[in-house]
Amino acid sequence: MVYLIGQGNDTHELTDMRGATIVLGGYKLKTNCRVISHSDGDIVLHAIANAILGALQLGDIGLYFKDTDYKTKNMDSVKIVKFALDKLKKSKFKLVNVDLTITCENIIFGKYKKFIQESICKILGIKLVNVKATRFEHPSNLIKCDAALLINK
Fold first, then answer.
1. Which among 149, 145, 124, 105 has a CA at the least distance from the CA of 11?
2. Quick one: how far is CA 58 from the chain centroid?
3. CA 33/CA 47 separation, integer angstroms
4. Count of alpha carbons within 13 Å of 144, Cβ hemisphere only?
5. Side-chain half-sphere CA neighbours of 1 within 13 A
6. Could you say which of 54, 66, 76, 104 is the most buried, measured as most Cβ atoms within 10 Å of its Cβ?
7. Residues pairing with 14 in the sheet
8. What is the pLDDT of residue 16?
9. Which of 135, 130, 97 is nearest to 114 (CA)?
């Protein structure tokens, strides 16, 4: 059996916007922030897609989904992950597990982690997904996700 490890991350700036909705791992949650991005700004799915492509030695999502292309403006990031999962399937590898860390100073994720995890499990078609959250512990208007995953054949 062959095992490969993938690592990915994504970071975006947040802006104040009362009653805004952000998307994390395909789960929509109401916050007082909006993610500044070209697509829907789902940093979790971007990090996962980058980790899958990295494990397969296929670069990163920027090679396939340019942030200067009007066709990808406001794109649902589930499409980006499905693209990476299709590459995974064609290579005859399978996703074993995913471990995520979301870092943000402005949003407390304790009550949302379970919902984000469930959404990711459904999108990826696996059960082994771990979602952690932490803070920068200094003033920051950023939101970041780090993803690590294992694939096998």
1. 145
2. 17
3. 20
4. 11
5. 8
6. 104
7. 35
8. 81
9. 130
Across the strands, what pairs with 7?
A: 148
53, pLDDT greater than 90 = yes
**Confidence label for 75 from pLDDT (cuts 50, 70 and 90):** confident
pLDDT at 32: 82
Single-letter amino acid code for the residue at 148: A
Alpha-carbon distance 54 to 59, whole Å?
6
Tens of pLDDT along 83-119?
A: 999 999 999 999 999 999 999 988 888 889 999 999 9
Task: Centre a 10 Å sphere on the Cβ of residue 46 and count the other Cβ atoms it contains.
Answer: 27
Query: CB-based contacts of 138: which residues, under 8 Å, 6+ apart?
Result: 105
In angstroms, the CA 61 to CA 2 distance is 24
What integer pLDDT is reported at residue 8 of this predicted model?
97
* pLDDT at residue 7, rounded to an integer: 98
User: What is the DSSP track for 20-82?
Assistant: EEEEETTEEEEEEEEEE-SS---HHHHHHHHHHHHHTT---GGGTS-TT-GGGTT--HHHHHH
